[in-house]
Structure formats: structure tokens, C-alpha cells
Specification:
Largest sheet: none
Order of helices and strands: HHHHHHH
Low-confidence stretches: none
Helix content: over 70%
CATH architecture: Up-down Bundle
Number of helices: 7
Mean pLDDT: 95
CATH superfamily: Ferritin, core subunit, four-helix bundle
Number of strands: 0
Shape: globular
Radius of gyration: 16 Å
CATH class: Mainly Alpha
Length: 194
């Protein structure tokens, strides 16, 4: 069931050129993103333990993201790529976080919707990578990730709908999709997921 909204701004071709020109650096960033996605799902449980309706799906999402981290790490090992000692700040996530509301309830909604937006962008970009991969193993891997991330985009909207009226959720999600599009449009291309 489609709950997430479509991206307002599609990724420009310069992004995939930057990724393919330095795929090992992209893999380091990708591994870091999967690790952070797993941690983020678990942080929802730590911050909102009373929101019991969403906990089973958050656990499942955290485990799945951790499995993706393991798969990316295995791919890195095969290519002789080490995990980065320190990852630079993600300018995309940083700009999204700056736009969050500060009220407790509003911030909870924003966190869920940002997670949906980030997963939706990830799905779009994994599809682009899959479409540009000649290597059958990499093509299959990124196709699998594309499908998984798309599903996660819907899961976080579903969670928001458990706790907030539909109109509030979609008014704010529409705002987030517009805001995310502006952010993506103004970021430089780099060998990174975002």
C-alpha cells in the first residue's frame, strides 16, 4: 500500500557520474548510512518506548538496515575497501534536521516524516545505481536495496498515521517533500548516497 509521497525533485545525472567515478568512496558512505539507519530505528524505540504500536516494525527495520550494513561491508571486503575512520557530516541530513519543529509532538511527527523522505530518496538513488551497474552482482544488490528502501518510506508514514490525523500527516509530509527537493537541488554532487 502506497503511503509515502513521490519525490518533488529527481536526482540529476551529475550525481551518478560522481558515484561511479569514485565507487569505493561511495561504498564507505553507503555503509555508514546503513549503520545510521539501523541506529535511527532503534533510537525511536529508546525515545518513544510508550509508542508500543510501532516497536515491532522498528525492530524489524533496524535489523534489516543492519543486514544491509553487513552486506555492504562484505562487498567492501571483496573490493579491499576499509570502513572510513571518520565520516564527514552528511549535509543533506544536517539541512533536513535544521528544519524540524522543536515541540515534543511536532518533533516526533517530523522525525517519522524525515525518515520516510530519506528512505524514499535512498530508494530512488539505489534504483539509479542498479540501472547503471554492468556487474550482475552489484545490479542485483542495488535492485534489492531499492525495493527495501521504498518499503521503508511507506512504513514511517504508516507509523505517523498511527499517532496523528491523516490531514496533519500529509500536510506536513507535502511540506517536507518540497523542502527536501529544495535541499537536493542545491547540494553539490559527491560520491555519497545523499
Amino acid at each position: 500500500m502506497k503511503l509515502a509521497l513521490d519525490l518533488r525533485v529527481l536526482t540529476k545525472p551529475g550525481w551518478i557520474k560522481a558515484v561511479l567515478a569514485d565507487f569505493d568512496t561511495f561504498l564507505m558512505d553507503h555503509a555508514d548510512c546503513e549503520r545510521k539507519a539501523s541506529s535511527s530505528a532503534m533510537s525511536f524505540i529508546a525515545k518513544y518506548p510508550d509508542r508500543t504500536e510501532m516497536i515491532p516494525e522498528l525492530i524489524e527495520t533496524a535489523v534489516e538496515e543492519l543486514e544491509h550494513f553487513q552486506q555492504v561491508y562484505t562487498l567492501m571486503e571483496k573490493r579491499g575497501v576499509a570502513l572510513a575512520q571518520r565520516m564527514p557530516e552528511d549535509p543533506y541530513i544536517k539541512q533536513l534536521m535544521k528544519k524540524m519543529h522543536s515541540g515534543v509532538k511536532e518533533r516526533f511527527l517530523d522525525r517519522l516524516l524525515i525518515a520516510s523522505v530519506v528512505e524514499t530518496r535512498g530508494a530512488e538513488r539505489f534504483k539509479i545505481i542498479a540501472d547503471h551497474m554492468d556487474d550482475p552482482e552489484l545490479h542485483q544488490f542495488y535492485k534489492m536495496l531499492w525495493i527495501s528502501e521504498a518499503k521503508h518510506g511507506h512504513i514511517f508514514v504508516k507509523m505517523a498515521l498511527m499517532y496523528f490525523p491523516k490531514d496533519n500527516v500529509y500536510d506536513r509530509l507535502n511540506w517536507w517533500m518540497d523542502t527536501e527537493g529544495e535541499i537536493v537541488d542545491n547540494l553539490p554532487f559527491r560520491a555519497a548516497l545523499h
